[in-house]
């Protein structure tokens, strides 16, 4: 997030797109509700009529995967109606002229023809956002899990640049991170193109710095993404170390993932349960769970916070960092003799630019939002106040692209996926928590009640749900959250493995899978399928 | 029966909001979770998962010891020494056979940062490659 969570109470117009915040980030949603209680306006764009949509002053029910059309339509209106922040674009942006030419063709009527949101509502949303004193954008994986995820984000950036709704309290571009420490995972350099602190691996200076620090010559070229590594498994990739990820259930195109992992010579998995992925490993290590270990998490507002051990680990479980460092030592690697998470964290800070000003003890205060570039720096709750990392903000020229799959006669229904309040991810944890199991014991495919009738289905009936990649059995449940022609399931239940069906395409830049859109077919079960089990 | 309990200040382990909580423990078991009123992200609020979904920590399904696949293809209990040796030998062997770009590491968005840092350090210092990623692309 460009702005801190506390800023969520400030905007007079909040624009939420592709974020089911009340279920996936409930506490963040409480802060937004405080703004609404004060009279702030809420615009919600989401294909599903989620709870947040019922709180909205303006709900934009776009067709799945058409965010670019909606957002370009809004940008067009801002330019057309003279709602631009002239001072901001003059002093903080570049390439405006080219962008203005580019945006001219994206009329709200054109947008309506694609995203199915009335042009008048697109114009109204644009006007509200642009005219707000403090307008803020919030988004989640509904924006990024598309073949055009980067395009979607850049369209949002364009809106913020046009209106100057960035760099001030209660504004900004605010992605809500889905996992407790997904921010920390990126910050720590566990990505193929950047060292800790987002120092590019292709930069010769950083290459020298880390080659020296780690005592061996580093590759000059970027690594490959996880998606590519799975594709190359058995061909170029032969061994994997997977820490705490149930790839077989969480990744798209499940059959493909399973085959990729099976084709490895050597798989080592570190986890707290024998997950579906761990069951396929050659070696499994028991990791400490949450509340069993000391360390740090960095949250969605880039706040570095300490986590603390409250109970002794189960059995012989050990911290992940300890296990990995000991594998390294058994390979004969030097300088892996870490004995406390403090040593690990402090080494990272010493090599990072964003964490350079903190250490283990300062992290314990929970006061620091990175970047903290030097000791004594107070941290940066709000990004881009005076300038952008590249100086002036750059407008991006984006064209609309259809999702990787569009409905046709064979697969006439849109499928979109996401999270639910009472389950988390692949349910390895919430599925083993008594009360949660009571709240959400099983998955059901949300289908618009009129579609149920049209497709001759009974509420609660088990059907076959198929895509080009596979077929699963799943119950249907009538729900007005689903628009007609679009169905929804979470990915939390391994007995309804929805990711058998997903994986139609990937963003060409980030390799993020289009988990939010694929096309499917529903078939009634033959009697033999239901009786025979 | 009101045996004393202990409180440990920490951060919730579910979504990325990062709510501050106090874990209540007695006899080395978690007996409750309370939102911290002074938690900067949550200011006293907490969701149903954060407050109640902690049973899994003490669940009988937890992995309690290392496991190694035996000659019959079955995962069986192993000592740390056996498991670490086998894990290390397998990586060395694959790198020897197919080159250092044959090994790949996947870090987690659920573990503390120290685990993620160690994973990338393992790949970079161990193989000189950037063959490392995390689950944010899932």
Care to describe what's here?
The complex is a heterodimer of chains A (533) and B (138). Chain A has 533 residues and is of the alpha/beta class. Helix content of chain A is 32%, strand content 17%. In chain A, strand 17 and strand 18 form a beta hairpin. The model of chain A has no long low-confidence stretch (mean pLDDT 96). The chains are: A alpha/beta (533), B alpha+beta (138). Strand 11 (283-286) of chain A pairs antiparallel with strand 4 of chain B, so a sheet runs across the interface.
Question: Topology as H/E string of chain B?
Answer: EEEHEEHEHE
User: How would you characterize the largest beta sheet of chain A?
Assistant: 6 strands, mixed
* Overall CATH class of the largest domain in chain A: Alpha Beta
Low-confidence stretches of chain B: none
Helix and strand content put the structural class of chain B at: alpha+beta
Unreliable spans of chain A are none
Count of DSSP-assigned helices of chain A: 21
**Per the principal axes of the C-alpha atoms, what is the gross shape of chain B?**
extended
Structural class of chain A: alpha/beta
CATH fold call of the largest domain in chain A = Rossmann fold
**Count of discrete structural domains of chain B:** 2
How many whole angstroms does the radius of gyration of chain B measure? 20 Å
Give the integer mean of the pLDDT values of chain B: 95
Strand sequence of the main sheet of chain A, in spatial order? 16-18-17-20-15-19
Q: What is the number of strand segments of chain B?
A: 7
Percent of sequence in beta strands of chain A:
15-25%
Report the average pLDDT across residues of chain A.
Answer: 96
Second rung of CATH, namely the architecture of the largest domain in chain A: 3-Layer(aba) Sandwich
- Beta content of chain B: 15-25%
Distance from first to last alpha carbon of chain B = 47 Å
**Strand segment tally of chain A:** 20
